[in-house]
Amino acid sequence: MRNKFVVTITDLNGSRHFLLHQLVKKFIIYFTLFIIAVIIFGAWLISMLYDEVSALEAKKEDLLRKEYQLSASNAKLQRQIETKTKEFEAINDKISDIEELIGLKTPETSTIDERLKTISLTSTQQQHLFRSIPNGWVIENNGLTAKFGWRTHPILKKREFHRGIDLRAKVGTPIYAPADGVVEFAGYHKSSGFGYLVILNHNYGFKTNFAHLDKKMVVKTGEFVKKGQLIGYTGNSGLSTGPHLHYEVRFITRPLDPINFLNWSSNNFEEIFKKEQRVSWQSLLKTMDDRSRLQKQP
Ligand SMILES: [Zn+2]
Fold first, then answer.
1. Which of 24, 151, 170, 186 has fewest C-beta within 10 Å?
2. CA of 148 to the centre of ligand 1 (A)
3. pLDDT tens, 112-161?
4. Is residue 269 a contact partner of residue 122, using CB atoms and an 8 Å limit?
5. Which residue range(s) make up the domain with 153?
6. How far apart are CA 254 and CA 84, in angstroms?
7. Is the residue at 211 inside a domain?
8. Which residues surround ligand 1, an ion (CB under 5 A)?
9. How far apart are CA 22 and CA 20, in angstroms?
């Protein structure tokens, strides 16, 4: 029994003796088993957690990818919204232009007759009006070949607003100024298709355009002209299907139907106020009335 302790355990059934080295052996065995169990359990736990972590990681990646896709499609939609907004604005502008052209935007139309009644012009004032505002035929009257308004362009074959009137005329027909004014432009107009063009700037915001003229120009830019003065000859220049005069009358920038001005004379002095309601006639007449009253004062 050298180097060995004896442990005696005594209970009701008697005593048992253990040699210490046996105890140590058992302890080592149990301890080893315990450690192995711990390791196995730990490994199992770690692998469980590891699986969970990889599952979460995969989920995270999936979500990130989805987020990226969503933000990409969001940016795309944002771009589409911007484009649509721009298109919408452009269409709005166009509608506004068209309204302007067809005369839906006509201010002060309802009460015009009422107000005009209160103003009667003297013959001198009438004469002044007929010298200042385009009136009468600008060439010999041989009828029209195209009216003012919407039409299909004879050469370009697309719908467009014909801003003037086409007057039938042989090449070389003399053209006369419809009112006093200054030549704003006289020459070949490349971009518009008008060919040789004369633009007259009259009083009170009126302008007249004469297009497709003969190349033999009569007036120069900056020159003053009187009503009835020769300003050029008709031709067939620019985008034109045949000899004619394209005649435009504009108030500020609005194109007006020239027929009302061609047919305007002292015989039907008041008719144009009803036919062309896109001009603030009453305001013009009132200004002239006020001026003559001022002149009468001593
Ligand atoms: Zn025309």
1. 24
2. 8
3. 555 555 456 778 888 899 999 999 999 999 999 999 988 888 778 888 88
4. no
5. 130-266
6. 29
7. yes
8. 166, 246
9. 5
